[in-house]
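Assess this one:
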Amino acid sequence: MTTPDQVREWQNPYREMPSKVPNHDHLSDYHNWDSRQLGVYFRKNGLGNYFEAIQKHRITGQLAPLLGDDDLKEMGVNIVGDRLMFKHHLKDLSRRERYNKRIESLWEGQERIFFSECDKNCFTCNGFCPVDPSTCEC
């Protein structure tokens, strides 16, 4: 006796692409953050003392990677360890963004196996053998 899933498989010669759980890292779009969001991020990472300075100087996610030692000193980050932590966290955000862009799927599709019903019937023994199409992801 055939199950409804088997009937669906025979009716549709293409297998669905495996569903992917979106692994969207919310930190990867930090370039779009405003100064408040950037300040919250640094606060969560132990640099909460500079939350007001980030907002006062209107440092956004787009401007943050451009910060140098002199800029951080001018903002009032006089402790060398804190400046190093700022740079470390900014480098980490940049690394996450590069990683997410590298694994981002640009195209997904399925390869067509049969070009006619005759091909399908021939290669699947009139539908008795399962269809196993190739899937591609670039």
Notes: The two ends are 39 Å apart (CA to CA). Strands lie at 108-110, 135-137. Residues 115 and 121 are 11 Å apart (CA to CA). DSSP finds six helices and two strands in the chain.
